[in-house]
Predict the structure of peptidylprolyl isomerase.
Amino acid sequence: MKKTLTLALLWLMAAGASAVPPDAALDTVYQLYAAQDLDKAYATLQRLDAEAKTPADRFAVRLEIGDYLLDKKADYAGAEAVYSALAADYPKHKQLPDVLYRLALCLEMREDYLEGAKNYEIVATRYPKSTYGTDALDAIERCFRKNYQDRVAYVDSYPITRIELDDRISRNPSAYEKYEKKQLLLDTMIDNRLLYSAAVSAGVATDSTLLLALSEQRNRAVFQEWNERTVASKSEPAEKELKAAYKKEVATRYTTPEKVRLYQIQVATKEEAEKLRLDLLSDTTKKWDSLARQFSTAPDKEKGGDLGMIARGSQPKPVEQAAFSLKVGDISKPIQVKDGFVIVKVTEKKPKTVRTFADVRNQLSADMKQQNTARLYEQVIADLKVKATLKMDTTALDQGKDTLATVNGILIDTTALTARLNAIPPFYRSQFDTPEGKRRILDNLVMEKLLLKEAESQKLWLVNKVVDQVMSRRAGMLVDAYKRSMTADKVVLDSAQLMAEYKATLAEYKEPAKVHAREITAPSRTRAEELRRWAVNGKLPAMIQGRGLLFPADNPDVEASFSAASANTDSLLGEYALAGAPVALPGKPMVSVGNKSVPDISQKTKITGPYVKPAPYGFGFGDLSKQGRLYRPVPARAERLAQLDSLLGRPARPETATVAPTDSARFGTYVKADEPLPADFVAGLFKLGANETAKPLATADGKLLVKVTRKDTAQKATFQDIAKRFSSSSSRWSGGDLYWLARDDKAHDKKIVDAAFSLSKGSLSPVIKLNDSSYVFVTMEEKKAAFTRPFSEVRSKIDNKLRRAQEKQLYDQLLKDLRGRAKIDIVMKEADFVVEPIPEEAQPEEAQPKPAEPEK
């Protein structure tokens, strides 16, 4: 099955089994319908009527003449006359219900809703099993909407019913809660009625262009009905088929095997593996992923030995047996594998699951229906092609020929293909504007001709679902066509008018002077000045990043683990990090370590915290230059409410005060960092290599260990580079780009705008204070002088503006004239929409408990 790319083309490709036409002569007429040769079709019908030999032939031909007038020419009066004569001349014909149904449709289209409903009722009640018995029942409801006696307005005696108004309101109830909004909606409905009546009076309903457009809408609806009847309705799988398919695929498609999350460390010898295992079991401070990165020889070492969620059959048998026998958190004994020995650990287990038939039935049914639809579609299309006289020139598209195909004598040329291509929405059009895409469109055009003939012979345009769609579109298309003829088509503009408007509104086309600027923002003036020096020099100095731990008491194991060059420092530091939100104090300088945070000691901090665990306490710093400072961390405990209030600078509360849950969670250790560390200690850090640890620094609060985790040499850097790496504003992601600024720019601080305009190209502004925590400097990259956009550039905009204005004037005048000539009677009242409260005596009484019966 050829893959379709749009919903429209899907319906246009729908097909179905062929039906035997009433006779060969009418089959020729249906073929002419498909070829859009309506005049020849009508001439053929006239000839057949004159040549009819029997009453049966005459009935068939005249019924088709009525259908031609109703469906092809929108001559409802003419069609009504034909059907009325048939009903009178053939009162006992087996197709009398079909004639009455058509007659009812003619009456409905002529807005004789009462008589139309009566004829529909005859078909639905007396002939419920006839061809259109069910359709007639549905059509009665449509006529009821106009026969409904609760009216809200009359337009030249034409009623607008309350049920129609309520239907419009129900589409967006919140928009029409006020009565004034309901009045505006009713005004719109009245205007639409006036326009519709004017369109009919002006002959728009029988205009050939509109009839062609309406025919395309009608054909789409017919193709949908054809597809539903011939393909979709026959593709639904039986319950027995669904259960058989489920049984066949349950073990593969609907079963998820047992899985475990497995980690491994691979080494060369059994002794090494056993030592690592014992270390992990005896010392909980040693982390699996750190040891895996340090000692494992497997390719997954950088992921901490993570093998992911594994099922049986994905690992060597001994590893698999161990993995599925371990409990979560257990570590296996050494296992021999091809390249040495491994120890494995399981961190998660997922049991085997099987989705039941009830769980998957709907999805399985949808999948099977799609498969059945594709198979049946191919079969039906093949049958149609075999029965048709079909000629397709496979080289025509490549060679640029005009004639592409013929279907039962109907020509399909490049004009038809181009028109269909241009009808595809621009978003999808590029997918079809290729040789292969055009072949698909050509296939669709061929299918349309085959399908249209079949649909005409089966009269699917009379099915109520199709009638509903066509009627709803017809009214809108009539109104749109009439409005266009009375407004847009009457607007004429010349160059002189456009130029006069350009001169009169020249101020609108003046573009102010603009500058293209970038910014770098920092939380302090000191930091901003430092970043500015780097930007001026176009060079970043040597910088280091680091992590630290403060030990109030000796802890040799943690000190050794932290100092090891191979240690996963951030993972270790995460064990001694701050609490997360909302417990941690917001807005404090932090350094991320994995998914946790520690205080940034490169920035002065009055107070931050609390820590999750007791000592040691973790710290960090990022991108520190030799001119930068580190601040000594000083721990402070808060174990009581008064201590917490004092640390956080809040008014003291009595110890007897109720402690809020957030405050109780904040009891613990905090840290201050507002006194610089010794300059020689900081300078010494720059002499270390990456992953080297400085000698412990003794402080009044304990031993401070600092480790350099990254070291960058001096390097060239553009303003954008520095902004992306160091700026604290959201513009950092675009290299500090402020884009084009005008003098009256409202999106940025006026200080920034003024600074940008004061600069020459490539120069930098001084540091500007925006507030106590935001300092910025900018550079100007390009300046545009003020200018006026030329007429040639804005001509189309002016044309569109004047055209819209004139169209509105014409439309407003049109409505004024139509309302002036019409008799409009609005009977809707605000009281009609007031919901009466339930009378007190009508409200149900609350159930009262029965009194206890006296003891016997």
Q: What stands out?
A: The CA atoms of residues 631 and 677 lie 5 Å apart. The longest strand covers residues 340-350. DSSP finds 31 helices and 30 strands in the chain.
